[in-house]
Amino acid sequence: MGAHVSKQVERRKAISTEKKTLVDLKQTVGSDYPGSDYHPPDRKNWMSGLDPDRIRINQIVWPGTHDSATNKIGIPLVTRPFAQCQSLSIYEQLKTGARVLDIRVQEDRRVCHGILLSYSVDVVIADLKRFLEETHSEIVILEIRTEFGHDDPPDFDKYLEDQLGEVLIHQDDQVFNRTISDLLPKRVICVWKPRKSAQPKPGGPLWGSGYLKDNWIDTDLPSTKFESNMKHLGEQQPAANRKYFYRVENTVTPQADNPVLCVKPVTDRIRDYARMFIAQSFARGFADRLQIFSTDFIDEDFVDACVGLTSARVEGKA
């Protein structure tokens, strides 16, 4: 018992120290960067507002959501706080400005996060279709993967093609250098990541797992995650030279050996430092490598942070 209490005291000290490290860094270096003062007049149509004829796919800093379809996960006030990473529906996230969705499914096509379940993936598709019908020039990256510990839904590739066939942007390495207008009226880059089933075929309507990469570390320590994100981003080639999407997730995750197990208070340890992360990527010389930037509990300021840098790139200021 005494050893357990001592360990918890040390954990709390470590978290407190790491939170202070980020506070001090923000006070020292700030959060300004090219485009940081930009706010899109219409977040629902922010790509359209930046001129689809000019903006290339590899110039975009894509605002994304982590564990996107968890707004209704589990049982309210019972299990939901331990797995909920977003409070908005998929449609509301897209309307707010998110353009990358992270969807986890199990064998029966229900969305899940670990052992906790949510609605059918049909709800995700319906919300996406609604958003696409209400907009004209917004491109969405839809990543769907089989959750760890679960089996692939049978014939899921066919399901995705049947549901989204008319709007799917086929896998093609040339897509990264094309403008949004070049791709229209196609609207969705769908990355399907099965655990055991065959990967999508080259040139087909679905993109394989190698086209969306990240370097996830499972920690609740905010400065540790911040610096890990920086390190791995710095190891990437510039986005203009890559033929895959690279994601940085501005999140931290509850740990079993820590008394705070609810997602919201844990991820809030790093959530407010998204703008500082972008500013630091400039200070360290690799802002040109930032591409997909994801968060828990997405809000308008996070979207503006990404869209502002995208605008600066399009204008030749970054």
How would you explain this protein's 3D organization?
- This protein is α/β, with parallel strands linked by helices and 318 residues long.
- The chain has one domain: Phosphatidylinositol (PI) phosphodiesterase (TIM Barrel, Alpha-Beta Barrel).
- The protein is built from ten helices and nine strands.
- It has a seven-stranded parallel sheet with strand order 6-5-2-1-9-8-7.
Question: Counting H and I runs of at least 4 residues, what is the number of helices?
Answer: 10
Q: How many E-type strands? A: 9
Strand order of the largest sheet: 6-5-2-1-9-8-7
Poorly predicted runs are none
Largest sheet: 7 strands, parallel
Mean of residue pLDDT values? 96
Distance between the first and last residues' Cα: 54 Å
Rg, rounded, reads: 19 Å
Name the assembly state: single chain
| Proportion of residues in extended strands | 5-15%
Question: What is CATH's topology name?
Answer: TIM Barrel
Protein name: Phosphatidylinositol-specific phospholipase C X domain-containing protein
Pfam families: PI-PLC-X (PF00388)
InterPro entries: PI-PLC_domain, PLC-like_Pdiesterase_TIM-brl, PLipase_C_PInositol-sp_X_dom
Domain Phosphatidylinositol-specific phospholipase C X: 51-192
